[in-house]
Amino acid sequence: MTTSSPDPVLPVHRGSCHCGHLRFTVRLDATRGTRCNCTICSKLGWTGAIVRPDAFTLACDEASLDTYSRHPEIAQRYFCPRCHIGVYGRGHLAQLGGDFVSINLNCLDDVELAAVEIGYWDGRHDNWQAGLRPTPWPIAP
Ligand SMILES: [Zn+2]
Questions:
Q1: Cα 127–chain centre separation
Q2: Ligand 1 centroid, distance to 107 Cα (angstroms)
Q3: pTM value?
Q4: Distance from Cα 12 to the centre of ligand 1, integer Å
Q5: What number does CATH give the domain 12-122?
Q6: Radius of gyration of the CA atoms of the chain, in A
Q7: What is the pLDDT of residues 46-70, one digit of tens each?
Q8: Residue ranges of E strands in the chain
Q9: Cα 86 to averaged position of ligand 1 atoms, centre (Å)
Q10: Which residue ranges make up each domain of the chain?
Q11: Distance from the CA of 58 to the center of ligand 1, in angstroms?
């Protein structure tokens, strides 16, 4: 009988909004993140990472949070009702493997953001098939 090495276990990180009402833990690879030039990501300055819902644990009542969505059939974002920081999103997209949580890496409390390798999406132009690239895409057409 052979034994295989266990799957690599990703580290657990802690995160929060600014005022501390919203706290969470998430198991993810925080060495990489994504930014997007779409109308909401660019205004929020969101640095995203996608995880499965069971990797994310919220420490407050989700019903106490504010939400906003441009495409409610795909996803919505959750904001602290006190300090208004956008911390995470929930959604469902087959291309992402079904249900997902998008973590705003800017809200992690134990990660050096300058060390996160950023990939850039061209969401502004629905140019998802182009994939990630190491430099930002323009906003102009
Ligand atoms: Zn807050």
A1: 19
A2: 11
A3: 0.90
A4: 21
A5: 2.170.150.70
A6: 16
A7: 999 999 999 999 999 999 999 999 8
A8: 12-16, 23-27, 32-36, 48-51, 56-58, 66-68, 75-79, 86-93, 98-104, 117-121
A9: 9
A10: 12-122
A11: 13
